[in-house]
Design brief:
Two copies of one chain form a homodimer.
Chain A: H1 4-10, H2 15-22, H3 26-34, H4 53-67, H5 72-83, H6 89-123, H7 133-137
The structure holds a DNA duplex (30 and 30 nucleotides).
DNA sequence: CCTACAATCTGTAGCCGCTACAGATGCAAG
DNA sequence: CTTGCATCTGTAGCGGCTACAGATTGTAGG
């Protein structure tokens, strides 16, 4: 077990192992390769992909950025910026803040939606009343 | 001008006019027809679609439901329910409430996202500090 | 009537971000 | 050697449109 750390660095992993380690599905990994988000890894003799630690790191980066709601296009930008440092922190921040703005807009819109729908649902009594306020609002003329 | 009301009922409209009246784009109208959300209208001699008032109402219904965030699948259900009445108001309400639940979940998730990103962005000083907390959190190891 | 030009037609492909197949291989354990 | 899993490539599908291309039809002006 003293080897485990060294082994995980030295031994290249197949796509299934990489998938488990990163939480990114196999098909998605291949998809990311296809669209050029991750580099094509070297292959075994039987043409299987062999991944190392740097691939793992990049995938984890992508997964986390996706969890934060960045589009693949913006993930691509973040990855581009992540190589060079110092100068780029400002760009990263700008990207993040733009993204925050979009999220806030989405939240505002969803809240409006929720209010409208809740009001409609509250006015709707179920089976009791023959006129359904929801259908009515939707423009239904019976 | 005394005729205008009567005319708009009696004269069938081309797809462009329908589009303008409902705010649904031409291509989208044809798309809705293709997927069976609206019935195929009668045609002119030159095979152009001719719409009447009932088509307009249905399209407006769809547009409003879409604006409320209903999926086309749920729009389909609402349309199905909107024909028969009295008994179905409860079903409509159930559909709406389920939808409200989904919207609330989305809002919660987006809020969490916004908090996380805002915290990260706040800790990021722009160019000043060589270590970017955003990139760091994303798992970047330089 | 002829000519432009606008409107509409059909069919197909693209967008995003995967996901799900099919059918062919590779590989390790029993 | 066989079984059975892992992986391979390529393609199609999801939702909900949108954007073309290229053919027709309708209409207004001259």
């Amino acid at each position: 077990m003293a080897y485990s750390h060294t082994r995980s660095r030295a031994t290249p992993a197949a796509i299934g192992a990489l998938s488990e380690r990163t939480g990114v599905k196999i098909e998605t990994i291949r998809y990311y390769e296809r669209i050029g988000l991750i580099p094509a890894p070297p292959r075994s003799e039987g043409r299987r992909r062999l991944y190392d630690e740097t691939h793992r790191q990049r995938l984890v980066f992508i997964r986390r950025a996706r969890e934060l709601g960045f589009s693949l296009e913006n993930v691509r930008r973040l990855l581009g910026l992540s190589g060079r440092h110092t100068q780029t922190c400002g760009e990263v921040k700008a990207l993040a803040q733009h993204h925050i703005g979009e999220i806030r807009t989405k939240i505002r819109n969803l809240k409006r939606l929720e209010r409208t729908l809740s009001e409609l649902a509250a006015r709707c009594q179920g089976d009791a009343v023959p006129e359904c306020p929801i259908l009515k609002t939707l423009g239904n003329v019976r």
